[in-house]
Design a protein that fits this description.
The complex is a heterodimer of chains A (153) and B (514). The radius of gyration of chain A is 24 Å and the shape is flat. In chain A, α1 packs antiparallel against α2. Chain A has two domains: 6-62; 76-139, no CATH class. Chain A is an all-alpha fold. Chain A is 65% helix and 0% strand. Chain A has four helices and no strands. Chain B is mainly α and 514 residues long. Chain B is globular. Chain B starts with a helix and ends with a helix. In chain B, 61% of the residues are buried. Classes of the chains: A mainly alpha (153), B mainly alpha (514). Chains A and B meet through α1, α2, α3 and α4 of A and α8, α10, α18, α19 and α20 of B.
């Protein structure tokens, strides 16, 4: 047996994992009966369906008629440089405040571009920070912690 | 007929209402709803023009900005953003050969060729006029069909709602471009994600892992922004090709008499096809545009010119996608069922304003309902009035390098997600969904069915439970009630049609006509 459609194989495996997880985890909730469903009924049923679909997709990816498709290599540096600062923004916003977090978000994420250079990145970071402060804080009056806690507001 | 116009009158009054507005300590009297509409259309186009950010991501990103507005104003602004984003997508398609979103993929084919032959201005005008005409027709259809459909919705019990949601979900699957099995799996995954949080019936907190933020459920903006916005940014960053932009050649905006003659029939056909496909659950702008282009290629006298800059190839899909954008509001406003991912976002927006979308909106809140419908027409008008004179600005925007744009997208996404519930955890979760979205993209799984399932999950479970409670656990309730049975039959027919081998290959072909 040989995997022909790698995309489908991994997609199916992913669905199987998700389905098994949801169905398995939901068994700790009361199942109930069809007439009086507990909180576990729907997720167990749906998770099982998802897992079965996952198996079907995996099987079809092994068939001789499946299209020959490879999964391209993941651009890990790009993923890390985009999602990393976003997660940091969430983690640090309450302690470092909006201004520092925005500057950091723009500075780190800009590095993901193949056209990166420091001067334009710093300029962009400043412009975007001022723009965000104007739109969200001044005009829309949304509430943010602005400065790091150790400086005080 | 008469009541339709009096209803539209109610809407027009609501839209034109003059309200005081205070800025710089000066109180001005302004028709605020018109202001929101214009602002929405403008911002929507602005972001729609930027390559690689579709309407779903655009709306998700701008949603928080509308929370502080009154309900009607907020919804008007959002629909303005939606049309603007649609229109902006066509502009990039014509000028850069980059579809700003999927529904303008076909516009690239002939629009870009027209631009290369120095007729970019004419192509843009054609797109605008075709869209405006389609928008007008769509609005009238919406006003005519909404009341009878809402009437029908009052006959719906939980069994009917369950079947209707099934129809919507399977419609979305059937009309999506990817593999059938994978799309069904994505819907299931979405449904499961949607029920994370406190169960309304039992009060049990499901899949929350003792994280208090998860007990309230996962916000749909978090999912939409992660799966669409972030995944799009990452996949754009991978591509390093340079683009050719026709910035200097946008002159001679006005089509000639000959152009007009060639435009009329395609616009009419595109509008008709788009209006029908827009109402279908799961349908919408993308399919309408593809369908209209394929149809035009078959029936046009100038079919040999298609692909080389035929004006019909711009007029038909552009009218079709706008007509569909308009009529896809029908199932949402009358039955409370979002037909596609954009409408799913509108449900979220309405819920935040404490409006439960469905047949009741029309009777309990007629000003809002008809105001929204009239504002759609105003929004379409604004697109023509604003965008043609402003085309110079949009062209300038196209020349801004991506390295400045994507950090801006990230900034707006982060701030947007945070402000929805002042939750840092939501920002973290968005990053997680961004990763998941990219994995989906790489494995060829579509995001739209996931988002639709996500929004409909709690609704589906609720109606499923109630239907079976009322029938004392008898599953035949779904097929013994005539309305429910017919909805399920339509669903079954849809599934059978897409799995037929002959249709299957056509479907693949229709989505790959490039």
């Amino acid at each position: 047996m040989k995997i022909r459609n790698h995309k489908d194989f991994w997609a199916g495996a992913m669905f199987l994992a998700f389905g098994a997880f949801f169905a398995g985890y939901a068994t700790r909730y009361k199942f109930g009966t069809a007439a009086n469903m507990g909180p576990g009924y729907f997720p167990v049923a749906l998770g099982t369906i998802l897992a079965v679909l996952g198996i079907a997709i995996v099987v079809s990816s092994l068939s001789a008629n499946a299209a020959d498709e490879k999964v391209d290599k993941f651009p890990w540096p790009v993923l890390l440089l985009i999602l990393g600062p976003t997660a940091l923004f969430g983690l640090l916003l309450q302690t470092l405040g909006l201004i520092v977090c925005l500057l950091m978000l723009v500075a780190i994420s800009s590095y993901a571009s193949h056209e990166f250079n420091w001067r334009s990145t710093l300029l962009n970071a400043m412009v975007l920070t001022v723009l965000s402060l104007t739109i969200f804080v001044w005009a829309l009056k949304l509430q943010f912690p602005l400065w790091p806690v150790f400086i005080g507001n | 007929m008469e009541s339709m116009f009096s209803n539209l009158g109610v809407g027009l009054t609501a839209v034109l209402a003059i309200e005081p507005y205070t800025i710089f300590n000066q109180t001005l009297s302004l028709p605020m709803n018109i202001v929101y509409c214009v602002l929405g259309a403008f911002i929507g186009t602005l972001i729609g023009v930027l390559p690689g950010l579709g309407p779903v991501a655009t709306i998700a990103m701008l949603l928080p900005a509308t929370f502080t507005l009154p309900p009607l104003g907020g919804l008007i602004m959002l629909s303005g953003i939606y049309y603007g984003a649609q229109y902006g997508g066509s502009t990039t398609a014509i000028l850069v050969n980059l579809p700003g979103e999927t529904s303008s993929v076909v516009t690239c084919i002939d629009g870009y060729q027209m631009a290369r032959r120095g007729r970019a201005g004419v192509a843009l005008t054609t797109a605008a006029l075709g869209s405006f005409f389609a928008g007008c027709v769509g609005t009238l259809l919406l006003a005519a069909f909404a009341p009878p459909l809402a009437e029908l919705a009052f006959k719906f019990g939980p069994a009917e709602y369950f079947s209707l949601i099934m129809l919507g979900l399977f419609g979305a699957i059937a009309l999506s471009s990817g593999s059938l099995l994978k799309s069904i799996a994505m819907v299931c995954l979405g449904l499961l994600g949607g029920i994370v949080g406190t169960d309304v019936s039992s009060g049990v907190s499901r899949f929350a892992f003792d994280i208090p933020e998860l007990a309230d459920g996962i916000g749909f903006v978090v999912v939409a922004m992660g799966v669409f916005g972030f995944a799009e940014v990452i996949s754009n960053l991978e591509q390093k090709e340079t683009r050719e932009i026709f910035t200097k050649e946008v002159s001679g905006m006005f089509p000639s008499k000959e152009d007009f003659k060639r435009m009329v029939a395609p616009v009419l056909r595109g509008t008709a096809l788009g209006s029908v496909l827009g109402i279908l659950p799961g349908g919408g702008a993308v399919l309408a545009a593809f369908g209209a282009y394929a149809l035009e290629k078959k029936v046009s006298k100038n079919s040999a010119e298609f692909g080389k800059g035929a004006i019909e190839g711009v007029a038909a899909p552009e009218s079709a996608n706008n007509a569909a954008a308009q009529t896809s509001f029908i199932p949402l406003l009358t039955l409370g069922l979002p037909a596609n991912a954009v409408m799913a976002l509108m449900v979220g927006a309405m819920t935040i304003h404490n409006i439960q979308p469905g047949p009741l909106v029309m009777t309990t809140n007629p000003t809002l309902f008809w105001g929204l419908i009239v504002s759609m027409w105003v929004g379409n008008l604004m697109l023509v009035v604003l965008n043609l004179p402003l085309i110079g600005i949009w062209v300038k925007l196209l020349t801004v390098p991506y390295r400045y744009l994507y950090p801006a997208i990230l900034v707006f996404c982060c701030i947007g997600v945070f402000t929805i519930s002042n939750s840092s955890f939501d920002v973290l979760l968005t990053a997680g969904f961004g990763f998941l979205g990219y994995v989906f993209f790489r494995l060829g799984c579509e995001g739209a069915p996931l988002l639709l399932g996500f929004v409909l999950g709690p609704m589906l479970e609720e109606h499923f439970r109630r239907a079976l409670l009322l029938s004392h656990g008898d599953f035949s309730v779904f097929v013994t009630r005539p309305l429910s049975l017919s909805l399920l039959l339509v669903t079954a027919v849809l599934v059978v049609i897409v799995t037929l081998p002959s249709i299957k290959s056509k479907r693949v072909e229709a989505f790959h006509e490039e």
